[in-house]
Amino acid sequence: MELARLTFRHSRKLRGMAFARGGPFGNNIHLVDGAAKHIREVDESGGFTEWGSFTVGPDDNPVGIAFGDTSTMYISSPEG
Prior knowledge:
Layout: E1 2-7, E2 12-15, E3 19-21, E4 28-30, E5 36-42, E6 48-55, E7 64-67, E8 72-76
């Protein structure tokens, strides 16, 4: 199930324990502690990178992924 789709005009970082700025729900999208997420990055040419699934937890170190300027990020639950 798709939870969010993010398009960035500038490089941003998605931190597993924080948020991604520039999302459609106000200024940020929070990744809920303990919830597994799957992330796919699609660039403007249609190429994609599967960042894979990870679980955000209160004891984990923050996860940082740098996204390209023209990429669209798809964040979904592992089931979908």
